[in-house]
Amino acid sequence: MALADWARVERVGDNGWAEIGARRIYILPTRYGLIYATLLFLMLLGAVNYGNNPAHLLTFLLAGLGSNGMYLTWRNLRGLEIQCAGAAPIFAGQTADFRVTLLGDGRERPAIQLAFADEPASLVDVAADSRQAVGLTINDLPRGLHRPGRLTVSTPYPLGLFRPWCYVDVETNILVYPEPGRSWLPPGEAHGNRDGGLGGDGRGVGRENHDMDLGAVAAELAAELL
User: Fold this and answer.
1) Residue with the larger pLDDT of the pair 184 and 159
2) What is the overall mean pLDDT for the chain?
C-alpha cells in the first residue's frame, strides 16, 4: 500500500470548497535543502574546530534563515481555499480540462502548484482577496464516469529548500463519451454519389434514372386502380 493512502486528506464540504488545515500539510526537504543542510553542518564543524566566533555567527544565521523558510512555506499553504468545479464532458481520447478555483484569503500566496497523479503540474500566483481559476489537464481517460483522484497542492516558496504538500480528495466526476466512429455511407449510397454526384453529367444520369423509377411506379399504381 502506498504511503499516500495513509496520509490525511482534505475533503470538499457541502458548499463545494475545501480549506487546507494546518495538520494536513506534510513537509520534506528538497534536494537543495539537503545540500544546504550539509553545508551548514560542515561550516559548524569548521567553526568548532577552529574556535572561530564569526563562523559560528554565520552558521547559525544561515540555519535561522532555513528555519524561517520552512515556516513561511508551511504558512503559504495553510488556510488556502480550493473549489473543484470539474470538467466538461469529453470523448474518449481527448484531454479533460479540470477547472479549479483558488481563494487568496487575505494574503498573497505565490508559487502554488496543483497536479493530479501522473499529470503535469500547474503553477499559479494567488493575489490577496482574489479568486484565481486554474485549468488542469487529465489525459488518457477511457469512456465512462471517472473520478480524477487526489489533487496534490504544493509550493516551493520562498527558498525552495522545503516542499510542503497537501492532498485534496476530489469527488467531482468526469463524464467521458465513447469515441465517435468514422463517417461512412452504405455501398449503394456511395455508388450513387459516384454516379450522381455534384456537377458533371453524372448528376443528370442519376436524376434521369430516378425519374424513370418514379414513372414506372406511377404507371403500375394507375393500372391497378383502373
Assistant:
1) 159
2) 82
What are the cell numbers at 217?
411506379
Residue 82 makes CB contacts below 8 A (sequence gap 6+) with 10, 17, 18, 19, 20, 100, 101, 102, 103, 151, 153, 168
- The amino acid present at 223, given as its one-letter code, is A
Cα-based distances in Å from 65 to 47, 53, 58, 121: 18, 18, 11, 28
47 with 151, same domain: the answer is: yes
Q: Is the pLDDT of residue 96 over 60?
A: yes
Q: Which three cell numbers stand for residue 76?
A: 503559504
- Does 141 lie in the same domain as 74? yes
Looking at residue 50, its pLDDT comes to 92
d(CA 207, CA 218): 17
Question: pLDDT tens digits, residue range 123-136?
Answer: 999 988 888 899 99
Residues 120 and 207 in one domain: no
Kindly state whether residue 182 falls inside one of the protein's structural domains: no
Give the domain extent around 221. Answer: 187-225
Question: Distance between CA atoms of 221 and 226, rounded to whole angstroms?
Answer: 9
10 lies in some domain = yes
If asked whether residues 162 and 206 sit together in one domain, one would say no
CA dihedral sign of residues 10, 14, 17, 20: negative
Q: Is residue 28 part of a domain?
A: yes
Name the domain count of the chain.
2
- 3-class state of residue 87 by DSSP: coil
Please state the length of the chain.
226
Q: How far apart are CA 131 and CA 104, in angstroms?
A: 7
